[in-house]
């Protein structure tokens, strides 16, 4: 192999310059414009960027004031984020416990999470999950005990309560389950 064909080493990347107040504000606005986010997620993002690039200002950055300003302008709204995320997760068939855990991980305050689903909504979400995953009456009719335990575990991991999961999995047929759904 000749020297012409050998890959040349890449020049080291130059580190980006430290952030100033205007650049930090632009980063925050750009992030809030691109992603539905919460105050806590925006705080983590800005802290990471400050750690990566550093700060060039004389006084330390006032990140909480910047986040409060964006929240006052409604660019960041924890309650709206919680509602959107809850609906999206429920549409995927995930139960209220899983939704609450995700909202807590995203830094949504308990007051901003809203009320959880009522019993009929929780049942409807569990039925949708069982249908999508082919569990209980939507799956094979000859499920043995081990398969039933796996199905129950899947329902519980998805955030459904034990009573709702057992109710869905114990239904004899899809007709029974749908009739049960409309009667509650």
TrEMBL record:
Source taxonomy: Bacteria, Pseudomonadati, Pseudomonadota, Alphaproteobacteria, Sphingomonadales
Keyword Cytoplasm belongs to the record: yes
Principal place of residence: cytoplasm
Subcellular location: Cytoplasm
Keywords: Cytoplasm
Domain RecX second three-helical: 77-110
Name by which UniProt lists this protein: Regulatory protein RecX
Family: Belongs to the RecX family.
InterPro entries in the cross-refs: RecX_HTH_2nd
Transmembrane intervals: none
Segments of this protein annotated with the region Disordered: 1-20
Signal peptide: none
GO cellular component terms listed in the entry, alphabetical order: cytoplasm
């Amino acid at each position: 192999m000749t020297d012409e064909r050998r890959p040349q080493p890449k020049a080291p990347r130059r580190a980006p310059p430290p952030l100033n107040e205007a650049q930090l504000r632009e980063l925050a606005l750009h992030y809030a414009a691109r992603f539905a986010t919460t105050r806590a997620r925006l705080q983590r993002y800005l802290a990471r960027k400050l750690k990566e690039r550093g700060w060039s200002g004389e006084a330390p950055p006032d990140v909480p004031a910047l986040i409060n300003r964006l929240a006052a302008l409604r660019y960041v709204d924890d309650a709206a984020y919680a509602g959107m995320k809850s609906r999206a997760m429920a549409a995927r068939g995930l139960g209220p416990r899983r939704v609450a855990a995700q909202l807590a991980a995203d830094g949504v305050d308990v007051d901003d999470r809203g009320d959880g689903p009522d019993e009929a909504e929780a049942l409807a979400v569990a039925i949708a999950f069982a249908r999508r995953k082919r569990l209980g009456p939507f799956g094979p009719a000859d499920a043995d005990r081990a398969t039933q335990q796996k199905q129950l575990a899947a329902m519980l991991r998805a955030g459904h309560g034990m009573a709702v999961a057992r109710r869905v999995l114990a239904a004899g047929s899809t007709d029974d389950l749908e009739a049960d759904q409309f009667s509650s």
